[in-house]
C-alpha cells in the first residue's frame, strides 16, 4: 500500500515537471516566434520569406507536440459530467464537415439513443477528432467515414469506421506508442492521447481492421463509477 502511494506521488511529480518544462520551453518559443514575425515585416527580409515561414511553422509544430504530450500524461478524471454522447457528436458536426469536405471525403453520423455517461466533454471531443482524422487520412478521395453510437449489453459503443487501406499487423502493437507514425507529417501522438482519454473514462478501445478499412470501437461501461 505504501509502495503504491509512493508511486502515485512520483507520477504526480513527473506531471508537475512536465508542466514546468513545457512552460519554460514555450515562453522562449513564443518570444522567438514574435521576433521572427517582426523581422518578416522589415525591409530586406522579403527574399527570405520562405525561411521565416518554415521557422514559424516548425515552432508551431513543437508547440502542438507539447500540448498533445501533456494531455497524454494527465491522469486526472476531473470535470466528469453526466452527458449525452450524441450531443457531443452533433456539436462537432460543422467541424467534421469542414475537415471531410476539404479532403473531398464525407462523414456520416448514425446514432441510436444511448444512456448518458460520465464524460469530460473536451476530452471526448479530442478523442473523436483524433480518431476521425486518422480515418479520413487513411481513405481515398470520394470515400465516406461512418461514426456510430449504439448500446450493446452493458456498454455504450462509439464506433469510427473508415474505408481506408487498413492497418498492417506488424504495426498494430505499436499503435498508441508516443511518436509512432507512418505519415510524413504525422506527430504520432493522436492515438496515445485517445488511449489516455479512454482510460480516464474507464473505456476500452478495440480495433477491427482489414482490406476494406478500419473500425475503432470506444466501449464505455454503463453505470461507470469513479470512487
Ligand atoms: P499520426 O496520425 O500523427 O500518425 P496517430 O497516433 O494518430 O499519429 O496514429 C499513429 C499511426 O497509426 C498512424 O501513423 C497510422 O499508421 C496508424 N493509424 C491510425 N489510425 C489509422 C486508421 N484509421 N487507418 C490506418 N492507419 C491508422
Ligand atoms: Mg493521427
From TrEMBL:
Enumerate the spans annotated as Histidine kinase domain.
20-224
User: Which domain of life does the UniProt lineage start with?
Assistant: Bacteria
Name of the protein in its database record: histidine kinase
- Write the lineage as a comma-separated list: Bacteria, Bacillati, Bacillota, Bacilli, Bacillales
**Which part of the full protein does this chain span, and how long is the full protein?**
468 to 694 of 694
Amino acid at each position: 500500500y505504501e509502495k503504491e502511494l509512493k508511486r502515485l506521488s512520483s507520477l504526480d511529480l513527473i506531471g508537475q515537471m512536465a508542466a514546468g518544462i513545457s512552460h519554460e520551453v514555450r515562453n522562449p518559443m513564443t518570444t522567438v516566434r514574435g521576433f521572427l514575425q517582426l523581422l518578416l515585416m522589415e525591409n530586406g527580409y522579403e527574399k527570405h520569406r520562405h525561411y521565416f515561414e518554415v521557422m514559424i511553422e516548425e515552432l508551431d509544430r513543437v508547440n502542438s507536440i507539447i500540448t498533445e504530450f501533456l494531455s497524454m500524461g494527465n491522469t486526472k478524471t476531473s470535470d466528469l459530467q453526466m452527458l449525452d454522447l450524441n450531443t457531443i457528436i452533433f456539436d462537432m458536426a460543422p467541424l467534421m464537415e469542414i475537415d471531410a469536405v476539404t479532403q473531398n471525403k464525407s462523414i456520416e453520423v448514425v446514432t441510436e439513443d444511448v444512456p448518458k455517461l460520465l464524460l469530460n466533454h473536451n476530452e471526448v471531443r479530442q478523442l473523436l477528432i483524433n480518431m476521425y482524422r486518422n480515418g479520413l487520412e487513411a481513405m481515398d478521395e470520394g470515400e465516406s467515414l461512418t461514426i456510430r453510437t449504439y448500446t450493446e449489453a452493458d456498454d455504450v459503443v462509439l464506433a469510427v469506421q473508415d474505408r481506408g487501406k487498413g492497418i498492417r499487423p506488424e504495426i498494430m502493437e505499436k499503435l498508441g506508442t508516443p511518436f509512432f507514425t507512418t505519415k510524413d507529417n504525422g506527430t504520432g501522438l493522436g492515438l496515445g492521447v485517445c488511449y489516455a482519454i479512454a482510460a480516464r473514462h474507464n473505456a476500452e478501445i478495440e480495433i477491427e481492421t482489414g482490406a476494406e478499412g478500419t473500425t475503432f470501437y470506444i466501449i464505455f461501461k454503463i453505470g461507470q463509477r469513479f470512487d
